[in-house]
Amino acid sequence: MCNTEKIGSGLRVTVGMSGGVDSSAAAALLVDQGYEVIGLTAHMWKDGSRCCSLEDVERARKVCAFLGIRHYVVNAQDIFTKKIVDPFVEEYAAGRTPSPCISCNSFVKFGFLMERTLQLNGSHLATGHYARVEQRDDGFHLLCADDPKKDQSYFLHRLNQQQLSHILFPLSEMKKEEVKAYSDERGLPIIPRGESQDLCFVEDGKYPEFVEQRDPSARMSGEIRTPDGKVVGKHAGIHHFTIGQRGRLGVATGERMYVKKLNKSENSVEIAQRQDLMGDVCMVADIHWIIGYPPAETFQCEVRPRYRSNGAIATVQLAGDGCAKINFDEPQFALTPGQAAVFYQDGEVLGGGWID
């Protein structure tokens, strides 16, 4: 079902819109294919953020007006704060590195907006994500996008069958260059803005300040140690660090050091050389399977322990209670608690969970 034309034109479809190139192009493509399109923009956070602010509402409104389609703004600030922002702060303060974009897709973009879509008698919710959904005899399957450079299936691995049955990804078979060219040719009134790898609700590089504003107790000084227990410095809170971090450690040891461990109970940061951060085993908890069940009790697949990872071959061994032990064929750098480990097989997302 990655090709929207297979569903049939004339149906009412909503599009989650931020006013950016991808969501705008997705809406235009559906209009061109004959769908009744409605733009939906979720106001999720305050002004000054990216992809969820009042500024983005205005950007999306202009695109919808150009396309001649209805545009509705829905207030998602409460659910965004409860399901995304508050857990983000709690995780960082606990020494973990969360992946809020994954939760946002599950609870807001394909949760809250999906509810609004069905209330509007829409058959599907479309977005500008680069991924594919395919219906088979055993249910709906999530696959990688045709463009590996833009593939976003990693962030979608917690979607369920009900959600997948009502999702369209119009850009699934396009490359980013083709999307930009189509947008230009279509004359879409898009205001360019740079793409950032940081979160939409936190200013670039200001994660610690954001955490402290919402949880002042996180500002607690402690020791920076080496693996042998030697104290080499002080820190102003473990939320200033992430596993694998190299710069901004505030210490000088004469060697290139990385953050190896964040110990919440001792309020300490352990740093070590790169080779000490290599590991071939980790536990994964709260696993979600796309079609509802795993392929076997023990199986081999490609595992991506972070978004930008190319993936590595590993053996997944179920351990009960939604957990599994992951044994990588080759050691991986900085396996980070709180990040998602996503399982792939032949370009398909099997599921994934949180590194524990």
How would you characterize the overall build of this protein?
The chain has a six-stranded antiparallel beta barrel. It has a five-stranded parallel sheet with strand order 3-2-1-4-7, sandwiched between helices. It has three domains: 183 residues, HUPs (Rossmann fold), CATH 3.40.50.620; 53 residues, SH3 type barrels; 79 residues, Translation factors (Elongation Factor Tu (Ef-tu), domain 3), CATH 2.40.30. The chain is globular. It contains seven helices and 17 strands. β1, α1 and β2 form a beta-alpha-beta unit. With 356 residues, it is an alpha/beta fold.
In terms of topology, how is this protein built?
Elements: E1 12-16, H1 21-32, E2 36-43, H2 54-67, E3 70-75, H3 77-93, H4 100-119, E4 124-126, E5 131-136, E6 139-144, H5 161-164, E7 167-168, H6 176-186, H7 207-214, E8 222-225, E9 231-235, E10 258-263, E11 268-272, E12 278-289, E13 298-304, E14 312-320, E15 323-333, E16 340-345, E17 348-355
Parallel strand pairs: 1-2, 1-4, 2-3, 4-7, 8-11
Antiparallel strand pairs: 5-6, 6-17, 8-9, 10-11, 12-15, 12-17, 13-14, 13-16, 14-15, 16-17
